[in-house]
Fold Alkaline serine protease.
Amino acid sequence: MKKVMVTFILLVLLTSICFTPSLAATSDNDLEKVIISFEDGIDYQVLEDMGAEIHSELDAISSVIATIPSTTITKADTDISVKAISDEQIFKAAAQQPSWGYQQIKAPSALKAGYTGKGVKIAVIDSGINSKHPDLSVVGGASMIDNSSAFIDRNGHGTHVAGVIAALNNSIGVVGAAPDAEIYSVKVLSSNGAGTLEDVLDGIQWAIDHKMDIINLSLTTDAHKSELQAMLKKANDLGIIVVAAAGNNEIVDTQGNYVQTEDDVLYPARYKSVIAVGSTNTNNRLSGFSYTGPSVELVAPGEWIYSTFSKDALINPAEYQNSEGTSVSTPFVAAVFAQYKEAYPHLTNGQLRETVKRSTIDLGATGKDQLYGNGLVQSLQKQAALYPDLIANFWYSESIQFIFDQGIVAGFPDGTYRPSATITRADAITMIGRAQGWENNAARHYFHDVSTSSYAAGYINKAYELGYISGMPDGSFQPSAPIKRGDMAVILKKIFGLTSSGAHSFSDVNQTKYYAEAIQAAYENGIVLGYSSDIFRPEASITRAENAVMLSKSLKLQ
């Protein structure tokens, strides 16, 4: 269903500098600048027929920003290839402030552990960044505003945000929570803090095209735009972490209390693909100006945050300033994600999102709530293992790393490995199948309780055909049941041809049992050690960590 959307204004609170909304530039009376979205790819013939002058191509959402004669809009809107035609929109910078916040999120702990955001690419989509500031290192970027450099910031907002994230760890000024992150200045806001939808979309497209890891959006609007939603979803789908300011209340009642006019945070933070960030004070209480609602995911310090600034770099290139607002909270979160991205480069953006949520300090009501979301964001506190729930340099570390490197295991969707959890019979055979390079062909069907649609079906079939498994007496396989330690030893003995001397090393292993010889063979080949000198617990369910050790040691025998 096609629709024409009207212009809207991005609402922001600035405490250090006050700005008034400015409108997008007005074109000739007979021409209109619009966003044209297509159903299935950009149709250049339709654009030519419209007499369109194309300004930007947004390939990620099959759209263009173009100027077309106003008389052709109605006709063009009826074309079957056109999904929607939308008007322009004005954006304005969200608020800012200083850096007790660096301590509050425990950034020094991450620095001590060696996590500084090194190698992580962050796009600061904002008012530009003063690249001449001695406390900042700007790797690159681009300006979406005509005749305006991405590396000059006459507003100061983007430079302040950049400092919260990555002010250099040197002897001057301040230090960012991810001082070694690669900062890219993507300029979409003018010197008065205003920007258009076109420029914001172009900025996000640039971040996608240049393979950014993180996008920081310290800007807000009170109106939904489908193109903005689609573009941010595309970024998220491509693995980019997107953080945005929840928004700042600007209305105050007669008692001096802030009044929120929306039932949720502002856009783009409200979109599911975006991490919405609220603001807290030095007492870990929600800032009065901070927007609340079901979409709030994290909170971070946002009152009087001291950071790099740039009002006029020619006069004072080394400015600093206190600022406040949810736009200041947002870069703290971006910086923490940079720490985690550096520590866990193999985790997806979704897994990192869950990992950071689990590490927060819960504030307000227990669990997620509409004021604090999942809580106060926290930096990494110690040296990271392969997965956040693993212990570094532990008895299982080398083995889990080995099978991970072999592509045998990938962890859970929430970014955990769960070393103490039991492993199912289906998972155990799947890992063996991957390790052996078996084809996961589910065409044949040997067990009535193994669906052909199961992720493990092909591997179970292959293991049966090769004689490594036989199933249960009733003809089932019981894929969801935990696999026993004794059963795993039997399978590994068959696959890897393990032999034993016939000795009896474990007092709790009955020599008449089917697994007795296999356990002894696994022990003599250094695959298992037992729980003590003579205890093996053959009937106990094997854990994911134990399975990793047994499998990795078996593979190394090949």
